[in-house]
Specification:
By secondary structure, the protein is of the alpha+beta class. It folds into 4 domains: 10-231, Heat Shock Protein 90 (2-Layer Sandwich), CATH 3.30.565; 251-462, no CATH class; 480-492 and 501-544; 615-776, Heat Shock Protein 90, CATH 3.30.565. The protein starts with 9 loop residues before the first helix and ends with a strand.
Length: 779
Amino acid sequence: MADIPFTVSARTARLIGRENVANAEGALIELVKNCYDADSENSIIFLDKTNSTILIIDTGDGMDDKIISEQWMTIGTDDKLYNAVTKSGRIKSGAKGIGRFALDRLGETCSMITFPKTKNSSGFKWDVDWNKFERKDKDGRNVKINEVFAQINNIEDSNYFSQLKRNITNKKVISILEEINSKKPIVNGTAIFIKNLRDDWSDSNISKVFQTLELLNPPEGLNKIKIWLLSNEEPNKYGLVENEEFRDYDYKLTAKYKKNEKFNVRIQIHRNEFDYNLIPKELFNYEDMQEFPFDKETFKNEEFEIERTFNELIKGASNEKGIFENIGDFEFTFYFLKNTLSTKDREKFYQKEFLGNRGKWIEKFGGIKLYRDDFRIRPYGEINTQAYDWLMLGERFGQNPAAFSRKGSRVRPNQVAGVVKFSRIDNPYLEDKSNREGIQESATFEFFKNLLKGLIKVQEDDRSTVGFNLDKLNSEINKEEEIIDESGNIANEDNDENESQEDTKSKNKKLKQGVKARDKKLSEKEDELATSRAMASAGIMIASFSHEFHGIKNNLTSRIFLLKRKLHKVINEEDLNSKEEGIKLNDEIDKLYRQDQKLKQWIEFAIGLTKKDRRKNKKINLIDYFSNFNKDWNSNLFKERDISFSYDYDESVKGSLTTNISELDLDTIFDNLITNSIEAFQRNGVKGERKISIKLEIESKNIKVQYTDNGPGIVKDYTKINDIFKPFETSKTDDLGNQIGTGLGMWLVKSAIDSNKGKVLLSRPSKGFEITFWFKKIN
């Protein structure tokens, strides 16, 4: 038996390379990265459409003939993978060994002049014709990769700078080279001449490349490489690429993570949106605004530092599979900036004026961009592409489109800019895709994205807390509740023909103020309704198909009996009860029966929710309500999950435990509380008896309802327990930090209590969960 080696045709190798360099713009970026990896301080790109040529010059280490043959011409070399750090300490951006195919993507032929550091007075000239990769041998087969050759020749008794001047005719390029040489002699480096270009290179394409290069390095920090882009056809349009630092923003959040055992992230926030000098100091009398970082002194300073753990950023996240350890050092700089500012909002929220045209700036620099070792990873944050909103901030906002005066409001993707920086060395689990366009989708990358969203939420929560309290202050200053009540009284008055003109004017003024105040209140309710509409669709569907559901429910009652009757006609009953296969079949039928009963109960429960009479407020005795409630839940869930449910009260006050409320609101409160308790029992593996208790008492003119369970309670990651009342706030996540809970249950509980003018108190007992609320008692 003979061993047969694998072979690769030259055409296959070329196709692999070209497929991994998606477009001309990407190919140029790859060549700039090569300049960076060569420790060059400069990179000059000259586009000459007239002569169908591209020139790329660097002043880096250069290459000798050994490096050219063993690394430059070796496809898929792992040199950069194992020699990841340059002599100057840069982390090399490449690792796949396919960057040289960028040359093939750009043009048909290529010449390279390179002078290595080891040989200052001699260099090498390398030439290749990429069309050779497509040729066939005498038998008509594609030539193999080892049958394609490039030419290499020595350059003796010369130097790099003089060779550049000899081979370059463009005066502007020569001028830049002479300026560089005057500051630091150009001794080593590589110049690549690409000819017979494959692309048209219109001015709009060149502009796009220039804009990409502006964002190639992070906007903040030292530029380690200067980049020039020049065009022969537009000599005055382009030049040195300079990136811009973000200055005109409302919020800036900088998060730095240095790998540590506690998974602590240091966060700096600059709250640049509000003008402290204009804000009435009564704002700081509110409970929220007395605690750090909202207290008066911190608010005045605008900047502060906090720390958050991974668990605090992604509440409920688990590290059972060690996903936290996969995250290495990273830095995230996030900017929030409004696009518009109305005079009304500026006066109400005491916001600072804009410095410039934010809309145009966002079009150019907006989006959250990823940088590995100071080089951008495309296409994240790329304008006009699907990858612009790669963190799905638009979807998050769509779920909760509330104004920022509502706690828990979220940013829109067209209001943000950001930079995520990390190193390949510190984050080996965040790997490139083979085409160098993005990060491989993996468990680690998914968790990393959720961490970033958790950091964005820190800014969102800060801003919405300030907005909520400023809105509250505005309402109190303008006495909106009093104005609404007073205007309502005026509207209900009988017409008085003898009323004076002055009284009429006064009443008209109050009515106008009342309409404005009521409109504001309606707008706030609209925020809540926007969230509720999505959930209402499920109820509408159930109501629309209630007739069909009734039919299904009735079939569930009888279909197993019909199945058994038909089986007995074809199978002997004795065989079913005595033979092994018959017994197994009987067991399966019994299991189906139990499942049908469960489905029947759930359908009855779902249909009952949509009945009109349940939506009307009426006199309800809570003891009667809980008696029926227990029957519904006990047969459905309590028994099979070993849950003990009880509701306790003093018999002497049984008849007084009556309030005015709709059954639907009561269901909203207790269905959500029960669901949360059951999920908490299951998720945290509570051992022993699982208890849910409700205690009913009379307190003055109110009914006090205390709900408790002996589960794990509110996760410790919530330092402020009332945060669980915010819409879309959840601690139910999978192993990667993805939210698997709706985050609406506790918000619905509080909304139902608030809408019935009740009061609520959330506690944190030493064990379990506890919530107390009060409803007005009626006779």
